[in-house]
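During the second half of the funding period, the structural biology subgroup turned its attention to how the target accommodates small molecules. The most pressing case was succinic acid, which had performed well in the primary screen but for which no bound structure existed. We therefore specified the complex as follows and requested a full 3D prediction, including the ligand pose.
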Amino acid sequence: MEKLRLLLKISSEMTKDRDIRKILTKLTSITKQLLEADRCSIFLNDEKTQELWTIVADGVKEIRFPNDKGIAGEVFQTKWSLNIKNAYDYPKFNKEIDKKTGYYTKNILAVPLVNHLGDTIGVFQVINKLTADTFTKSDFELLDHLAMYAASNIENVILYEKLRKAQEDVIYKLSHATAYKDPETKNHIIRVGLYSAVIAKALGWRDDKVELIKLAAPMHDIGKVGIPDKILNKPDKLTDDEFEIMKKHTEYGYDILHGGDSELSKLAAIISLEHHEKWDGSGYPNHKKAKEISLEARITTVSDVFDALTSERPYKKAWSIEDTMKELQRTAGSHFDPEIVKLFERNIDKILEIKKEYYDEH
Ligand code: C2E
Ligand code: SIN
Ligand code: SIN
Ligand code: SIN
Ligand code: SIN
Ligand code: FE
Ligand code: FE
């Protein structure tokens, strides 16, 4: 049966998605087909402004209105569904939306979107039944069912997004735990993650893997917490003995990060251990060479050195972009994976945009 096939399609597609816009677009498109409706809108309540907003109104850009306005507002406030045959006869109908969109609304079926706590988070509505003059009781039951499904998906995405933001925050803060003694800035940490994500995307990686390196790369120098202050913030060149101690930050970082269960902490541990290895085997701590070094670490190395060179440090001035790119090219094949340097060059516009957005204030 066609309807069943569509329902199965929703469930398998929704669970993969973590992007609210994609989810809403899919839900509305499938709901229109299922209910034989001309339009479908999912209004979500913006808690800050107490407005209902929707991004999917078929070609129309975002629509926003107070959450007690119109039919959608009434459903939102009362939590009662409405099945209205002639919208223009209904006093609460908000004619302004039709005016704005040039559309003619005849009938509306609208149900509340309720989360697992019983709070209304929005309104799910279909407009203009294509195959009859009005929506039926079985349309209502179907939409009500879809609304439960939609609400739980939307809620998951919102929770996931909050969690992701909190995690990002913790990672940036922890990665910068040496802030009070290390001249590296918080933005350096963020930039190294974002540059690495640009390269990962250029390699064609899936979004979740790109996200992983974006968050893991910033932790590459976390082991510097174990390095004595007088070495870490020395305003001059390090002596050989001091540099030997400094080199230990790779293994300290590995010790801090490894042994975790998450893919993120595993990846961060490897990157920390290997981000000073060099393509020709002359790096530290284990003199790994070429593809013995994980690809993620090879990417992070290029990002880190690009950012270190173009930034001011107490012991050095910032290099120009041009000199920095020359240096990357000069040492591609000795210090760096030449393929990664190529990708870095090819994507230099995106890199420079990031550099500009997360610039250091002095
Ligand atoms: P960092 O400042 O984050 O630098 C990361 C890497 O960027 C360095 O790894 C090196 O490969 C490259 N890099 C940074 N500055 C320069 C530079 O002026 N010239 C060139 N050619 N490459 C540069 P490396 O060398 O293993 O250093 C690891 C960390 O040790 C550095 O991290 C920094 O915290 C510290 N460090 C290195 N050299 C000195 C120094 O002369 N004085 C002080 N105070 N710290 C240093
Ligand atoms: C209303 O909620 O009153 C109108 C909704 C719409 O036309 O989309
Ligand atoms: C962190 O070290 O900040 C997070 C690591 C993890 O989530 O596994
Ligand atoms: C990998 O390290 O993931 C394989 C690809 C490569 O080494 O370049
Ligand atoms: C350095 O470690 O300061 C130089 C690294 C390089 O680019 O070869
Ligand atoms: Fe380092
Ligand atoms: Fe660094």
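Two results from this model are relevant to the next phase. The chain has a mean pLDDT of 90. The pocket of C2E (ligand 1) is lined by residues 184, 234, 237-238, 246, 276, 304-305, 308-309, 313, 315-316 (CB under 6 Å).
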